[in-house]
Amino acid sequence: MLLVPLWAWLAVLAVILVMLAIDLFAHRRAHVIGVREAAAWSVVWVACGVGFGVLIWSLYGAELGQQYFAGYLIEKSLAVDNVFVWAIIFSYFAVPREYQHRVLFLGVLGALVFRGIFIAAGSVIIASFSAILYLFAAFLIYTGYRMIRTRDEHLDPAKSRALALFRRMVPMTDAYHGQRLLIRRGGILLATPLLAVLVLVEVTDIVFAVDSIPAIFAVTDEPFLVFTANAFAILGLRAMYFLLADLMHRFIYLKLGLALVLIWVGIKMALKVDLFYIPTTISLAVIVTILAVSIGASLRATRGQARQAITEPENPPFRIATPAEIAALQPTWRPRRAGRRSEPAPADHTTTPPPPRPGEDR
């Protein structure tokens, strides 16, 4: 068991917060992130993740260092599939490219919080009831098998239950208002489509975490390594999205490779409970080989194909607010004065209930 002092946990959290602050400052103004900028940030985030792994290796030895890198590779590779799902969501809802970074930044921030909770809960459950590893192993093997069967299927945002529930319960405007998540119009606080997209991104990440967290526990039992491998892999997701989103049509065998990785770590987890422990060196080599072969085969089979953005629908569900509509917005968080009636709002389609007819009960 790796005994990590409290100051080490606090130091890692401080580093993560500083990195997030730097990223937020660098992208404080909405702009379209190009391939060159995304590639530069991807190098920065990967260097941070690899550098932390080297630090773990030098401080705690090769075994724990390899466990960290195995977890980091699993999370990073599964994140690529997550990136492609984000591309489908953004394209379906025609989210302007200059607003996508804000959604992904908040989505990654939420992902860190939720995964921290999942990791803490998983550590407690495994420590109290080690036989749960058999259930995790069976789940990973089944998930890998199901991923192979459905590797040609893609998310359909129009059928998302999370989005339908959000639109039914939260009053929402039908237009993007810059990077705003909430607006106030006619004295009523309304969600913008950008908030709905953020909710859908967060829900999909939680679904992916259900696969990735047990997969990392298959290669290491150390909560500190599980969390840091997750965190450093997730921090680079935004840059990875802008780098790879237009290339998803080229990774035709990646989902098959990810499925084989899940099946492999599921088998490793099942064996290590009471039967046989597969050395981390072998496990890491198998993961690297599967990913390298699937990525290499994909790029070879699709060589010569250029970057290609996902086609947006002809009639997207949301539109962009006009300058007049944005100028007419009321301050979002300023409370209304008592007895002051709000000014009439400009015409706009919302999901708010219609006013009652004359004679009906209010």
From TrEMBL:
Keywords in alphabetical order: Membrane, Transmembrane, Transmembrane helix
Annotated membrane topology: Multi-pass membrane protein
GO CC term, one of those recorded: membrane
Positions with biased composition (Pro residues): 352-362
Compartments reported by the entry: Membrane
Main location: membrane
Residue ranges crossing the lipid bilayer per the database entry: 6-26, 38-58, 78-95, 102-119, 125-145, 188-218, 224-244, 251-271, 277-299
InterPro entries: Integral_membrane_TerC, Integral_membrane_TerC_rswitch
Disordered: region residues: 329-362
Domain of life: Bacteria
PANTHER family: MEMBRANE BOUND PREDICTED REDOX MODULATOR, THYLAKOID MEMBRANE PROTEIN TERC, CHLOROPLASTIC
Record-stated family: Belongs to the TerC family.
Protein name, per record: Inner membrane protein alx
